[in-house]
Fold:
Amino acid sequence: MGAASLAAVALRDPHVPGSWGTCPVLLLTGLPCPGCGGLRAVSDLLAGEPLAALGSNALAVALVVGGALVWAAWTAAALRRRPLRLVDAVTDRRAVLGVTALAVFAVVRWLPGVEAVLGP
Structure:
């Protein structure tokens, strides 16, 4: 599923306006959600342009890097035949921290002057 999603982003350029539709939050409020620019960030990462990816959505880049690290740890554990239990790693505290980080990122990117750096 992940490979198919990456192939779709590689084949259909999210830099073309409307190619993937419009974010409903952006459409209704005029403000970017934490995910706005995420497809462009992934596309830029696939093209080997990490700085452009950070400019599209720094949070998406952090999530991709984090996901790659978790996948590498899971793969290493599987090769050692010692399964990595990711369910045990997700606690209520970490879930609240994650939701809080999304909210803070969204609000910070709405601040005047910051949208030039963190805007989609």
